[in-house]
Structures are given as C-alpha cells and as structure tokens.
C-alpha cells in the first residue's frame, strides 16, 4: 500500500515524515509544546521549516527545554552562548525574540491562563477543517497576530501564526489527497 502525504513532507527525511505523520495538524494542548512551537515558527522566518525541525532537539537543549521562566531571565552571557551555538539559527533578533516571548508568555499565562486557553477559545476548542487548499493567512491569523504583538510577542506575523495554527492542530490543512486529510 502506498502512503500518500502532503507534498511538502520530504520523503528523504525521516524526521520530517514523522513530524507530518504524528504532529502536524494534531490538536496540541500542552503548554510547553505550544510555547516551543510558537518560538520555532518564529525562528523559521526566512528559512525552511525543515531546517528548524532538524535543529529542534538542539533548540530544546539550548533553550532549557523551553522553560519560559528560565528563558525570561537570560542575561548577556547566555545570549552570547546562544549566538555561538551552531545547533540553532544564530540570529540575534530571533534569540532576543525568544527571550521577549518568554516574558510575554508569562504575562499571557497570568492574563489568559496560558496559550492553550488563549488560542483554543478562538476556535471554540475545535480545529478548523479546511479542504486541502493552500492558505497562508486568514482573518483569524491576522487577529491573533495583532493581539500577540500588542502583548509584546515578536516574530508573530500573520503568516507565522497561520503556520503555527496548522502545526498545533488548530487548523487541519492536510492536502485533499493526503492520507491524513480525513483522519
């Protein structure tokens, strides 16, 4: 039996196939993973998702398992260490964004109860099911992006937020001919 996947899932990369098959489009309610994915989607800006996905374990190690309290307290010494780490994208703005996002996330947790409560209320707790068409932004991604920016988050433009919504399963966008489309 031939397995049919979305065209973007590189068949030569087992990490990418595993991501497609077991994570992308699957509803996520785990706070730490929601925070991680928000930052990884931002780190992807201008690059391929495959590049970031291949570095994900390095990111987890470099950013203390995506512990927002630890990240919010990073100092210049830690920033220099991150910028010297070949396992992550060494971009000063993206490293600074992760630190700022940790601070904004901590406040969002106080205000909204966390990313899970904040994000999923926008879709009444149920994923939006699309029909396999190629979408890069929506009115909802525009709205969430604008609000997150107001709250101090960085690298959260509408295109990034839409990709994030797909990644965490708020939106089910598997291609119509993908075996995962109807799952």
TrEMBL record:
Origin: domain of life: Bacteria
Name of the protein described by the UniProt record: DNA-3-methyladenine glycosylase I
Species: Undibacterium griseum
InterPro entries associated with the record: Adenine_glyco, DNA-3mA_glycosylase, DNA_glycosylase
Residues that span the membrane, as ranges: none
Gene3D superfamilies, alphabetized: Hypothetical protein, domain 2
């Amino acid at each position: 039996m031939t397995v049919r996947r979305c065209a973007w899932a590189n068949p030569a990369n087992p990490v990418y196939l595993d991501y497609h098959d077991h994570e992308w489009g699957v509803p996520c309610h785990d706070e730490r993973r929601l925070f991680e994915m928000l930052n990884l989607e931002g780190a992807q800006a201008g690059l391929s998702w495959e590049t970031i996905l291949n570095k994900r374990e390095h990111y987890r190690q470099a950013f203390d398992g995506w512990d927002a309290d630890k990240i919010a307290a990073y100092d210049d010494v830690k920033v220099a260490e991150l910028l010297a780490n070949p396992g992550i994208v060494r971009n000063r703005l993206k490293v600074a964004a992760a630190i700022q996002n940790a601070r904004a996330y901590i406040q969002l947790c106080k205000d909204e109860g966390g990313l899970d409560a904040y994000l999923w209320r926008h879709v009444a707790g149920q994923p939006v099911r699309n029909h396999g068409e190629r979408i890069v932004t929506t009115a909802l991604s525009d709205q969430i992006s604008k609000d997150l920016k107001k709250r101090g988050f960085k690298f959260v433009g509408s295109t990034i937020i839409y990709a994030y919504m797909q990644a965490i399963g708020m939106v089910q966008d598997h291609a119509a001919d993908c075996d995962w489309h109807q799952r």
